[in-house]
Amino acid sequence: MLIIENEIIKAAFKSTGAELRSLVKKESNLEYIWQADPNYWSKSSPILFPIVGALKDDIFKHNNKEYLLPRHGFAREKEFLVENHSKSKITFLLTEDSETLKIFPFEFQLRICYELLENSLKVIYTVNNNGLDTLFFSIGGHPAFNCPLDKSLSYEDYYLEFNQKEDLVCWPITKEGLIKNYSEPLNNKTNTLSLNKALFFGDALVFKDLLSEKITLKTKKNNTKLEFYFKKFPFFGIWAAKNADFVCLEPWCGIADSEKSNHNIEDKEGIIKLSPNDVFDKEFEIKVF
After folding, report:
1. DSSP label at 222?
2. Per-domain boundaries in the chain
């Protein structure tokens, strides 16, 4: 494991997938990150790149060619280069190679930077287009947080608090992982979502254009909590594996294909179109209490 730390918190990472595997508050030795129990879900915080979610039939078309790309893309399984590593900051780098070009015909540099600032972890995604053509891609986070944080409490003792009142409208997912062509109301004009494990039995809750830029995982029974800050992510997922003791807060720049997808990547909902030599960046922040 690769470690960064300061006086308050310590974080650990795997170079495979540039994945966050631990975030501990030193004073209490409290672990906030799901520890990848393979009986439920063997990831902790995968990077979703160059797509978020599933493609229809697992394929996309570009320049009249078809490419086979698995759900959430390939970055979470690739070995990243550790580009920089200091006591409280680490940057990982992934570039195209002969294997990625077979399934994703674009040149790119993907950097994942993690930096500790007091009691928070900042996560920065940076994508560079080094090719001669437009780069079409999506990117998103998938961090899983332990719930309950306090093991003496239950999952149902916790809730999510949005910093704005939301009309929570979900976009259901088919068994193939595609976005259905209609939405379903979850809650109206609320800033809280009570957690229970049955909430995710049908897959993730997928939202478009949330008003909120902060979601807090908390309980009324103590002051231990986690604040999740995100800005201008057009899509957001909330998920847990069936009966598992975690909840994922997932900021996305991109979304799974719809049932009516025509497979053309340039027409894909939420796809980012990055011109040659341009740079895309996006960040979110995890603050622990």
Report:
1. S
2. 2-288
